[in-house]
From TrEMBL:
This is Pentatricopeptide repeat-containing protein. Keywords: Repeat. The keyword Repeat applies. The keyword Repeat applies. It comes from Linum tenue. InterPro entries: PPR_P_subfamily, PPR_rpt, TPR-like_helical_dom_sf. It comes from the Eukaryota. Belongs to the PPR family. P subfamily. PPR repeats lie at residues 9-43, 44-78, 79-113, 127-161, 163-197, 198-232.
């Protein structure tokens, strides 16, 4: 690629690294990783996780932990796949106690929060995706105060700002905790913060009003959503069916949603809709 003056990107390098790891030529894979840095092509979580997995499969947990440290030092949060590879490495070495401790760590939200705190207090910079994962987990665990504080910290960050996903997660969490009016105010604040709501954002706030038996607000938002080219998801349809009397299922707004692009391409049945209504954020 380089001889033909075609510049390889991180995806191309990751493919080569994965191939070398499969061929058990980890040293060559490491050379490629160093080459990426020299060429100012920053390795990503996939690059590091692939190497962690390769070292662990060879039983070299120490090498895997070195890669893990480099990964964190360069500002990338290990994901579940990274930690699972490390856990498997411990199991291969029959270090079951360490594997169990790591399993407990990745299975607990407090562990994730601790890791986030370490990074946040260091010279490294957290990213919006990290905030979003933790906020989503906190809301789903019913830890409202911590979820609110996480969003506030993100909003105050000098280098980061909440994105559409961050707003949507928080709107959904507030709705599920019963703070629908506050959720609506935050939803309206998105545009003022140059963060346009997407289809998921609209559906989430509509879910909130429908769950709290406020069809007028919900229908107004549905009209607005459709006018912007967005469609109802299965949860919105399910809640609307539950709220509207059977003799009103030919209501214009319901028919408009039923004929939307998303509904045309998905099978809609009562079982599917009921199940969808219990799911979380889009």
């Amino acid at each position: 690629m380089k001889d033909e003056k075609i510049q390889p990107d991180v995806v191309a390098y990751n493919s080569l690294i994965a191939g070398l790891c499969i061929s058990s030529t980890i040293n060559e894979a490491m050379k490629l990783l160093n080459e990426m840095v020299e060429r100012k092509i920053m390795p990503d979580t996939v690059s590091y996780s692939t190497l962690v997995d390769a070292f662990c499969k060879e039983g070299n947990v120490l090498g895997a932990k070195v890669i893990l440290k480099v990964m964190i030092h360069r500002g990338f949060l290990p994901d579940v796949i990274t930690y699972t590879s490390l856990m498997n490495g411990y199991c291969l070495r029959n270090e079951l106690d360490k594997a169990r401790k790591l399993f407990d760590f990745i299975g607990k939200l407090d562990g994730a929060l601790a890791l986030f705190q370490v990074i946040d207090n260091s010279s490294l910079k957290s990213n919006v995706a990290g905030y979003n994962i933790l906020m989503d987990g906190l809301w789903k665990a019913g830890r409202e105060k911590e979820a609110r504080e996480m969003f506030s910290r993100l909003s105050r960050d000098k280098f980061l700002q909440p994105d559409t996903r961050a707003y949507t997660i928080t709107v959904d969490g507030l709705c599920r905790q019963g703070f629908v009016d506050e959720a609506y105010d935050l939803f309206r604040k998105m545009e003022g913060d140059s963060c346009l709501p997407d289809s998921c954002s609209y559906n989430v706030i509509i879910h909130g009003f429908l769950r709290h038996k406020d069809p007028l607000e919900a229908i107004g938002l549905i009209h607005e959503m459709v006018s912007k080219g967005f469609s109802a998801d299965a949860t919105t349809m399910s809640l609307l069916i539950e709220l509207l009397p059977k003799n009103q299922l030919d209501h214009p707004i319901f028919q408009k949603l039923l004929n939307g692009p998303d509904m045309k391409t998905h099978k809609i049945g009562s079982t599917d809709l009921s199940a969808a209504a219990t799911q979380g954020t889009c």
